[in-house]
Amino acid sequence: MDILFGLNTGRSVPTKSVGKRLFGKGASLSESPSSEGLFITRYLYLILYTKYFILIRMLDIELIRKNPEKVKEGVAKKKVPASAVDELLALDNTWRAKMKVVEDLRAKLNQLSKERKIDEAKQVKEQLKSEETQLPELEIRRNLAWIKLPNLPADDVPVGPDESGNKPIRQWGNIPKFDFEPKDHVAIGEALGIIDTETAGEVSGSRFAYLKGDAALLQMAIIKFVFDTLGNEKILKKLADKIEKGYSAKPFIPVLPPMMIKPEVFKKMARLDPGQEEERYHLAKDDLYLVGSAEHTLGPMHMGESIPENQLPLRYIGYSTSFRREAGSHGKDVKGILRMHQFDKLEMESFTTPENSLKEQDFIVAIQEYLMQQLEIPYQVISVCTGDMGGPDYRQIDIEAWLPGQNKYRETHTSDLMNDYQSRRLGTRVKRADGKTELVHMNDATAFAIGRILIAILENYQTKEGMVMIPKVLQKLVGKKEIKK
Q: How far is the CA of 86 from the CAs of 20, 65, 68, 127, in angstroms?
């Protein structure tokens, strides 16, 4: 029989008893009907399928209780109604009241046991059992309301309804001028025989591609270039000093992370919340998900740990194949390799003290810009508005590369500061020199999404003769200066 473990009751409770109250006589959590059960089915299959109820923490509950108006204002900027906060507070009050009843009964039972009042103790024990079995249901409902609340945005994040509210911060580089009509990456790649979406379509379906020949060599060169750069303390020091003199230039540790993740860990990374499931590939037989980016398995590396303060910042650069269903992108960027079901990505992940997390994000963006400048690709830096940023984000900065084939800037990089939104779920803390602990802050950011940076190189470095010049910084790594048929 499936068991629901109520963390606050300390007791194992059959899911049948919870299901009965939630869905009617004889029902268990796995037998939820289509109406009321829908709210719980996907969520609980992620949490309860492991046989235990795992408490997923989100925003600081004390902040919500003590300053609900601030929370309402923050979530509203992310298009979540203030009523969602009221709903949580109501459920939280009910849960807290029930907890007090349970705790009072436990205290009374202990006292009666000490006094050897057996008959009275039996009555209280039965009452306690009845009250305790109600706690898991209340906690589930409370968590479901809690998880709806996104991270609150930073004060300097522009407020806007969607991408139309994003604000350019700066631009770099000169937009190339051609004495011919520039081609897009699809035409270039097909003509050179280095991108083949037609065969991939026959083999795997739409949004897949074969990268062949010099495209494959160029990808390997980009990976080596990034690993070399992020491991070079001399380069990083120059960038760090621009953020703040003496700011840590600690190198990034290269990682090849797992490409599959457990659902409960995915949930702790805030990447499998309601509405996100449709974007993920699920291996039902193994109950594992394919990652959508390297940070999905980089972020949990210190799950449940308290990291000594003198070890921070901890920085990782991961390379991984990533998988996304692109469920909400029907008809968008179908041609080529801009929006793929399977793609490769180099991703930065860092853990810092709370007081350094904003500086860390600025440092990471400086790294992203350095990488783009080394490739000599024009770009602009964008402050992403509240209506376009991710739910877990405290602040999001994007970089958009100029794509001559589309005659516009397109997003190639994202930098996400999560502050303690993920670390609260993961239980990742910093242990201060005085012995006190608090939640670390986490940043993740793109070094390069390989497909998108290949597009930028092909389109910006194309020639009238149909060749593609290789950026100088990559020529030695590729072993040639140009790609030609």
A: 27, 10, 8, 30
Return all residues near 250 (Cβ < 8 A) that are at least 6 apart.
233, 236, 313, 315
Residue with tokens 């593609």: 468
Torsion of CA 409, 411, 416, 421, to 10 degrees: 120
Q: What is the rounded distance in angstroms from the CA atom of residue 456 to the CA atom of residue 182?
A: 12
How far is it, in rounded angstroms, from Cα 231 to Cα 229? 5
Can you give the pLDDT at residue 142? 93
Tally of CA atoms within 13 A in the half-sphere of 313 that contains its CB: 29
Contacts of 374 (CB under 8 A, 6+ apart): 225, 229, 471, 473
CA–CA distances in Å: residue 54 to residues 3, 51, 303, 305, 460 = 12, 9, 14, 17, 49
Q: Are 399 and 411 in contact (CB under 8 A)?
A: yes
Whether residue 413 has pLDDT greater than 70: yes
Q: What is the mean pLDDT of the chain?
A: 88
Could you please report the per-residue DSSP string of 383-395? E--TTTS-TT-SE
Cα–Cα distance, 453 to 126 (Å, whole number): 65
pLDDT band with cut points at 50, 70 and 90 for residue 204: very high
Which secondary structure element, helix H or strand E, spans residue 100, and what is its range? Answer: helix 83-114
User: Which pairs from 407-410 meet CB under 8 Å and 24+ separation?
Assistant: 409/379, 409/380, 410/338, 410/452
Sign of CA dihedral 55, 263, 393, 325: negative
- Helix segments in 292-441, DSSP class H: 295-298, 357-375, 421-426
Structure tokens at 19: 């299901």
Based on the number of CB atoms within 10 Å of its own CB, is 374 exposed (0-12), middle (13-18) or buried (19 or more)?
Answer: middle
DSSP label at residue 251: P
pLDDT at 355 over 50: yes
Distance CA 141, CA 438 (A): 27
CA-CA distance, 43 to 274, in Å (whole number)? 7
Task: State percent of the chain over pLDDT 90.
Answer: 81
Residues making up the chain, counted from first to last: 485
Local structure of 418: helix, strand or coil? strand
Cβ contact 4:40 at 8 Å: no
Supply the angle between the helices 135-146 and 83-114 in degrees, to the nearest 10: 150
